[in-house]
């Protein structure tokens, strides 16, 4: 019998093509709303696998209700919404799509750093409001990044790409806080591994590239922001849950830190009345880190191949749980 895959959102055509080529049937959820787990569970009985893109909570209850599934194939590098322990216990494979999105995500972090440092999003809004009046030598002043220090929290593939861009473009000094040593970054970029507190105290830009885990949940809170330089920019392109949004807003309002660039928010999506959207030194994007044609095609292809390989009894291309 032909295998069947459920896909939680529209995905690039390449994934559907790969499934077709391998005689696998699929259903794509195309409604313009997130389909919650409770609604999805009864539907899943007819499927052998699921490709997940978006915020579906794949918790123990979901997995126990769908234990016939062979694989949860994430079309993302992050899998914080999956109970990995439960998947292991129940023998359900979990795949993800690392590597191919590192450049695009680092580009987004770099863009947000630069946009915050020059108040670019705010200035654009000022033009739309009809407030471009005259050239004022004392107004709209931002911060320069040349020769400054970048602190990377979580120096994996994406953090490395961000460090490379900042070292190359601005000769920024790279310090990092990471579980292990990143020898390549130390050799190629002169990166220096430091303690978390040293990173906070010495960085002009702190850029977060770590996974959301119980240890990193709201790691950036009032106390942590208070250890940063008043001139520092906080950049988060990883997961919004890594910062406490109320504490971030307060830190920006009272000058504890200077600015922020966010591709991820806490909670997500951010509502239009969020004060961060009206702060001149803040740039916010709606979680588009990996949103380029090439990157999304590559992610979709890996997600599909992980499903195909599972049905063929082969090792996953990228496995979280095998
Ligand atoms: C990822 O790949 O984890 C992106 O953030 C999309 O969720």
TrEMBL record:
Domain of life: Bacteria
Catalytic activity: glycolate + NADP(+) = glyoxylate + NADPH + H(+); (R)-glycerate + NADP(+) = 3-hydroxypyruvate + NADPH + H(+); (R)-glycerate + NAD(+) = 3-hydroxypyruvate + NADH + H(+)
Pfam family, any one: 2-Hacid_dh
Span of domain D-isomer specific 2-hydroxyacid dehydrogenase NAD-binding: 111-289
Gene Ontology MF terms: glyoxylate reductase (NADPH) activity; hydroxypyruvate reductase [NAD(P)H] activity; NAD binding
Gene3D superfamilies named in the record: NAD(P)-binding Rossmann-like Domain
Keywords, ordered alphabetically: Oxidoreductase
InterPro entries recorded: D-isomer_2-hydroxyacid_DH, D-isomer_2_OHA_DH_cat_dom, D-isomer_DH_CS1, D-isomer_DH_NAD-bd, NAD(P)-bd_dom_sf
Top class in the EC scheme: oxidoreductase
Gene Ontology, cellular component aspect: cytosol
Coiled coil: none
EC number, UniProt record: 1.1.1.79, 1.1.1.81
Domain D-isomer specific 2-hydroxyacid dehydrogenase catalytic residue range list: 5-320
The family this protein is said to belong to: Belongs to the D-isomer specific 2-hydroxyacid dehydrogenase family. GhrB subfamily.
Protein name: Glyoxylate/hydroxypyruvate reductase B
Species of provenance: Chitinophaga agri
Lineage summary: Bacteria, Pseudomonadati, Bacteroidota, Chitinophagia, Chitinophagales
